[in-house]
Amino acid sequence: MNLDVMKNAKRNIIAGIANKLALILCPFVTRTIIQYTLGAEYLGLDSLFSSVISILSLSELGFGTAVVYHMYRPVAENDTETVCALLNFYKKVYRCIGIVILVAGLALIPFLPHLISGTYPEGLDLVLLYLIYLFNASVSYFMYAYMSSLLVVYQREDINSSINMTVTLLLNSSQIVMLYAFRDYYLFTLMMPVFTIVNNLRIAYMVRKMFPQYRCRGILPASLIKDIWQRVGGAFLSKVCAVSRNAFDSIFISMFSGLAVTAVYNNYYYVMHAISVMLSVITASFFGGVGNHVVKRTVEENFEELNLLNFIYMWISGWCTICLFCLVQPFMELWMGKRMMFPLPAVGLLCLYFYLLCTGDMASIYSGVNGLWWHRRYVSLMETAANFALNLILGKFFGVYGIIIATNITIFMCNFFWGIRITFKYYFQLSRLKEYYRYHIKYALVTLFLCVLAYNICLLVPCGSVLGILLVRFAVCVILPNAGYVVVYRKTDIFRQAVGRMGNWLKK
Fold first, then answer.
1. How far apart are CA 273 and CA 283, in angstroms?
2. Are 245 and 387 a contacting pair, CB within 8 Å?
3. Could you give the residue ranges of the DSSP H alpha helices within 154-184?
4. How far is CA 246 from the centre of its chain?
5. Number of H helices, E strands in the chain
6. What's the pTM value of the predicted model, to 2 decimals?
7. Is residue 123 part of a domain?
8. Are 176 and 47 found together in one domain?
9. Into how many domains does the chain fold?
10. Residues 284-308: pLDDT tens digits?
11. How far apart are CA 360 and CA 413, in angstroms?
């Protein structure tokens, strides 16, 4: 079977961007309405329970990726029986995962009051509310979630994105109606499992209609099952720390500082994450080409390409960091009001958090296409353990500042310093590592200088309406940092290469 890669890719990109925009904008609207109808403590509860559930859902990470990987060959060879056996195996494991999440979630109920510092909304049944979140997290594993793997294999993720986008819009619309009509947070949360079920049923219907030849039947050979579990382990350990970062931060902020501060933190994190989601479209677009070049080109050629891609990406990431630092405070004042704002030092730490996350993105692509997940297993374990321990220690003494500092330390030491070293050790060679670090030090210093310069110029904006200040600052951030990058790099070879590459991309 041959797929029209370019045609499918275009469909996937268009639907994927639309879906991401819905996933960003809809929670933005609902968080705003919760804040103004119910209050910050309800936002804090949503952040806390979502973080707890994301930790419980770690039991799934990596399994879907491993099963999809094993489907590519039998689908290409029209081996229907093997695909059916994989689906059957996938279905059974997903049911076990759903049971594990339910049991582990129920075991946490006695500890719920200890995860909240101070008070929570009077008259609210914490256990009932938590059970709704838990049911929403587990019900998907019992209702055809495994069938979406066929859409990935056949490169029809546009269908999955379209369904998710539609359901997201319907979910948030119904939640808004519940808030305005009844001001009932129980009804608000009940909409989540209802639309999770709708989403899964719709995907199952479409998959069965498109691929009627596939049904859950058959048994996989023991050797294939063993290989799946090995890949699950590698993928799980490489992703677990990414999911646990914000989850741990939210849980410890709730424990040490209360629900209101948790809500403020997650408002800022939401803005930061929205930018990261859009940047992920860039990194995802590189995977196919990088994988092809790793096979067909020399290590030297790929190292030169890494430097070029990293230069372009860190320019974009640095600009986003500057915009975040200069614009997020007036945006928060306009969105949530002055009561729901952090002081400037906390904003600076969050911007550093965002920038540090970006520094490892390009190297991680080469790590992924070379299958270095298992080599990174200790990095992932150490980052998760260190983040937990430092959050506990620094959070107790310094509150939200200590928790953000703890996360920054673990990202820098584990994800950036140690993680990139593994990519070079097993692919690019360690002799090139110092050169790559020098590039990053230069990018960081230039971005820091431009950030301080842009912020001080933004302070000169005459006082007026918050919206007016936001718009003028945005104009400053569009012009000044990019002009600064051009002045600094215009005479370098990598700048000329980047301009040429970007020109070719725009023409295409």
1. 15
2. yes
3. 157-182
4. 10
5. 18, 0
6. 0.72
7. yes
8. yes
9. 2
10. 666 656 666 776 778 888 888 888 8
11. 11
